[in-house]
Amino acid sequence: MSLPQIGNGDEPFIGSEALAEGTATSHQLRTRYRAIFPDVYVARLAPPCARQRIIAAWLWSRRRATIAGLAASALHSAKWVDDDLTVELLHANPKPPPGIVTRRELLTAGERQLLDGRAVTTPERTAFDVGRRGSLLSAVTRLDALARATGVKADDVLDLAGLHRGARGLRHLETALDLMDAGAQSPKETWLRLVLIEAGFPRPQTQIPVRGPDGMPFAFLDMGWEEWMLAVEYDGDHHRVDRGQFASDIQRLERISQVGWRVVRVVADDRRADIIRRVERLASSVR
C-alpha cells in the first residue's frame, strides 16, 4: 500500500503512524524518504516545497497547532513565499526543531478556520500577524500578496487588532495596512510603489486600465496617476530575456503611448534617485 500522493510529490506523513498502519516499512523510511522534522517524512526525490514544509510542521505538532503567519498566508494562496520558509505555529510546545517557530498567542473567536482539515488563522488574523513583524517593506509586501489572494480588507484587520490592544507591533501594523494594495503583482512592484510614496508623490493607483477607441481596456498599467496620464512600470528580467515578451512589450507600449500615456519603465539596476528624478521630470510637465 503506497502513501497518499499529491501533485508535486509525496504528502508528508508521520513515520511512526505509517509503521503502525503498515503503509511503510523501516527500510522504506530509510531509503525512500527523509525526516524533515522529527518523525515527519517526505520523499527524497526533491526538496520540499513551501506547502509540504507547512504540512510537515503541522504534523510535527501532532495536528494540534494552528498554522499562522507567513505559512498561513501561503495556505491562503498568497504568492512570494519561499520554499525554505520557517513555519510559524501557534502551539504550546516551546522547543520546536529548526525550521519551525512556535508562539503562544491569544486567538479570539473567529480567528481560526479549517483548510483541508488543518487549523489555519483566518486571512484577517494572518494579516494581523504578518503586518506587525519585519521591516515595513517586508510587511507591506506580505500584506499586498495576502490581499491579492484573499481580498482581505484593512478595516477588518484593524477591527481585529482592537481585540489585541496589548500586542506588539500595532503601530507598525497600522502603517503597513495603510500602504497595503492588492494591485501589486510582484514584490518589486510593492517596493517601487513605496519608493514613489516615500519620495512625496501622491499615492499611485495600481492596475490602471488603458482603454482603446472602443472603450475596452487593452492593457493594465502597474501604477500611476490617471490625472497626469503618467505610469510607472517595473520590468522584470523576463521582459528582457524573453524575445517574444520583448516584442509584445514594444507593441503594448506603442499602443499605450498612442492614447496619451507616458510611461517610466524601471528595471532592477535603476537607482532610487534616478527613478524619482525621471518620474519628477515627467510629472512636473503636466502639473
What does this structure look like?
This protein is of the alpha+beta class and 287 residues long. The protein has 3 domains: 1-46, no CATH class; 47-179, no CATH class; 187-284, 3-Layer(aba) Sandwich (Endonuclease, Chain A). The protein has 12 helices and 14 strands. The strands form 5 sheets. It has a 4-stranded mixed sheet with strand order 11-12-13-14, with helices on both faces. Strands 3-5-4 form a 3-stranded antiparallel sheet. The longest helix has 16 residues, at 243-258. The protein starts with a strand and ends with a helix.
Topology summary:
Elements: E1 5-6, E2 9-10, E3 13-14, H1 15-21, H2 26-31, E4 33-37, E5 40-43, H3 50-60, E6 66-68, H4 69-75, E7 87-90, E8 100-103, E9 112-115, E10 118-121, H5 123-130, H6 136-150, H7 154-161, H8 170-179, H9 187-198, E11 205-211, E12 217-225, E13 230-234, H10 237-241, H11 243-258, E14 262-266, H12 272-284
Parallel strand pairs: 7-8, 13-14
Antiparallel strand pairs: 1-2, 3-5, 4-5, 6-7, 9-10, 11-12, 12-13
Helix pairs in contact: 4-5, 5-6, 5-7, 6-8, 6-9, 7-8
